[in-house]
Automatic annotation (TrEMBL):
Gene3D superfamilies xrefs: 3.40.50.880
Protein origin, superkingdom: Bacteria
Protein name (database record): Homoserine O-succinyltransferase
Gene of this entry: metA
Main location: cytoplasm
Enzyme class: transferase
Residues flagged as site, Important for substrate specificity: S192
Amino acid sequence: MPVKVPDSLPASAILRGENIFVMSEERAESQHIRPLKVLILNLMPNKIETETQLLRLLGNTPLQVDVELLRIHSRPSRHTPCDHMNAFYRDFEQVKHTNFDGLIITGAPLGDLEFEQVQYWDEIRGIIDWSQQHATSVLFLCWAAHAAFYHLYGLKRYLREEKISGVFRHQRVHQHVPLLRGFDDEFWVPHSRLAQISLDQLKAHDELTVLAESDQAGAYLVVDSNNRNLFVTGHPEYTRTTLQTEYRRDLAAGLAPQIPHNYFPNDDPTQTPHARWHAHGALLVSNWLNYYVYQQTPFDLNDMDAMTPWE
């Protein structure tokens, strides 16, 4: 949450110079409080597992968040009961005339397909376009980040020679950025994907800024020039056992997967995996909700033009 201090206090100017969010007395007195409305487009097969992971992160904040769940189509899911989908998920037609403070689009197990080969690619493109006018901020995770890079900026990914799977060390590229407040200089993040976008390509784009990266996994956090779209190529929402479950699933399917890097003690899959990303995962989502959603969104969601200018 922001720090409220008198405008004339010397510390106020110092903190603003370090990009620490300080709220003026005038702005604090004029603020009205209401719950944030966050829409989650869940593209993962096991909807219940993914929604639980994301809700755990969204719940780790003092802000009140009202969540709605969105599905990309109404066809029966092979991995989630129809009763669950019908009870808790909405179709796009039901929300397309509504504005939201935040939108999260999850990853999807589609890493080896060209985007145009994805059965619901037109729907994905439509929702991404819609989000630019109907959500204060959009958080794209893993596959969704690559899809948005491609659709919004024409950036093409490439398939890696082998799947990247494991927990990797990352570094902050920028020091004083709201999204990274409280982050250590180095931190760990899970990755699990077949595709990658060139780090050099992202850094060369005029409308994008790489905020954090990894020597092994490439760009991790990228933000657009308007601070509206946040692209996260890893999985801060993963639980301790998610990579273990994926590894065992791929083994059972005869895919001969590599043991996830930096995950099992002594690279021994029979041992309980290490979890060293939960704190930074929670901090990432908390910072996004506070600085990129709560502090920017209009009190009246019907007036998206009233978004607070970025400071």
